Amino acid sequence: MKSAIKIIVFVVLSVFWVSTSMALHELFKKMDSNRDGQIDRGEFAGDMKRDAFNKLDSDKDEHVSQDEWGNGNFIEAGKGAEVFKSVDKNADKRISFIEFSDYSEKYSNIEEAFMTSDKNRDGALAPDEITLRPLFRFITIRY
Questions:
Q1: Alpha-carbon gap, residue 120 to 101, rounded angstroms
Q2: All domains of the chain, ordered by start, with CATH?
C-alpha cells in the first residue's frame, strides 16, 4: 500500500513538474521576441507592460477605461483615480497602450523585477532564470 501511494505521489509531482516546465518554456519563447535565446531588458519590459495592460483591458478594445482601471490591483489603494489622470496624458478618459507604456517606463517595478530575475547579473535572462512572470506594480508616487 505504501509503495502504491509513493508511486501516485511521484506521478502527480512528475506531471506537475512537466506541466510547469512546459509553461515556463512557452513563457520564455513568448518573451524572447527576437529569438536569440535570451531576454534583454527591452523584451522583458515590453512583455510585462503588455501583460499588465491586457489584464486591465477586459473588453479588449485596446484602451483602459476608468471602470477597467478600478478593477486592477497595480496601484496602492486609494490612489487609483489620481494615477489614472496622470497616465491619461490626452485627458480622453481612457488609457491607450502607449500612454500606459510611457508611464510604466518611469513609475513601475519593471527594472527591479528584471534585476531580481537576472541571477547571474549579465544583463539578460536565460531560460533557467525565468521561473515565473513577475507581478507588475506601479510604484507609489508622492504628489
A1: 27
A2: 4-117 (1.10.238.10)
